[in-house]
């Protein structure tokens, strides 16, 4: 259980750090670029993927490239949502992206549906609608940017999850996929930020990005390790991770950023938690 707690802490720390650094004048785009340097290095050292036996011919490069472009794009949407919608609603939207993933699993991968899955997805969809419509104090009052950021995070993380599942169905293992995606995400985002956007490289953004990438990868590694150690209890890992992230997100939003939400967000939070419990029950 300790691994799940640490993974949840790292997940929320990524959001907290991104929000704090943005408020301190750091450039989110540059943070995203350099985050993939430390993430790819740590991924290689931790998982030790067998790159020597990588089949260039049989690797689904189009899928890797799509993922490599999707990751930094969703990260940028995360920064936008944190700024305009707040950390409480952003973390809940990110966690409820599992609803779209399950819908895709049903329609695309033909997974079986159960009563608890349907109930969990229904509660999740209502929860997302409520948090998108709700208002949060002490964050930007630009509601259009807030709801577009939330919907982007919700749909974006679901898309990444779906693409990763599809990649694994083609035979490419997760460590190899992550390493290739992180490396290409760095290349694509570097070219975009420093060549096309012509931003000036700043050492503070490089260091901040490397730190961000450390927490970003730690979240992934600890979550995967928890699934390995508790391979007979995937529901515990799934429910524990998602619920702890929501709880830590709420606490950090209220304590660190002084966010206050209306009744719609509170009801959405409750329904979201119930939805996660139903989905865990279905596993």
TrEMBL record:
Gene3D superfamilies: 1.10.3730.20. It comes from the Bacteria. Keywords: Membrane, Transmembrane, Transmembrane helix. Pfam families: EamA (PF00892). The chain crosses the membrane at residues 28-47, 59-80, 92-109, 116-134, 146-164, 176-197, 203-224, 236-257, 263-280. SUPFAM superfamilies: Multidrug resistance efflux transporter EmrE. The keyword Transmembrane helix applies. InterPro entries: EamA_dom, EmrE-like. Residues 3-132 form the EamA domain. This is EamA domain-containing protein.
């Amino acid at each position: 259980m300790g691994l799940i707690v640490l993974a949840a802490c790292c997940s929320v720390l990524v959001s907290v750090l991104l929000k704090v650094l943005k408020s301190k004048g750091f450039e989110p785009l540059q943070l995203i670029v350099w985050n993939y340097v430390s993430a790819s290095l740590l991924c290689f050292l931790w998982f030790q993927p067998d790159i020597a036996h990588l089949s260039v011919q049989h690797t689904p490069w189009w899928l890797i490239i799509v993922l490599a472009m999707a990751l930094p794009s969703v990260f940028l949407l995360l920064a936008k949502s944190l700024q305009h919608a707040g950390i409480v609603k952003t973390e809940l939207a990110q966690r409820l992206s599992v609803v779209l993933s399950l819908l895709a699993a049903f329609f695309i991968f033909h997974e079986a549906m159960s009563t608890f899955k349907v109930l969990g997805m229904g509660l999740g969809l209502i929860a997302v609608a409520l948090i998108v419509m709700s208002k949060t104090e002490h964050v930007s009052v630009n509601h259009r940017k807030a709801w577009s950021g939330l919907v982007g995070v919700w749909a974006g993380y679901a898309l990444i999850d779906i693409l990763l599942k599809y990649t694994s169905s083609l035979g490419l293992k997760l460590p190899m996929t992550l390493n290739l995606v992180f490396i290409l995400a760095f290349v694509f985002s570097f070219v975009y930020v420093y060549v096309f956007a012509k931003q000036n490289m700043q050492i503070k953004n490089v260091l901040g990005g490397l730190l961000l990438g450390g927490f970003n990868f730690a979240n992934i590694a600890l979550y995967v390790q928890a699934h390995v150690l508790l391979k007979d209890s995937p529901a515990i890992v799934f429910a524990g991770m998602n619920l702890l992230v929501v709880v830590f997100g709420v606490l950090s939003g209220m304590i660190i950023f002084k966010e206050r939400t209306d009744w719609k967000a509170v009801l959405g939070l409750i329904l979201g938690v119930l939805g996660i419990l139903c989905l865990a029950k279905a596993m």
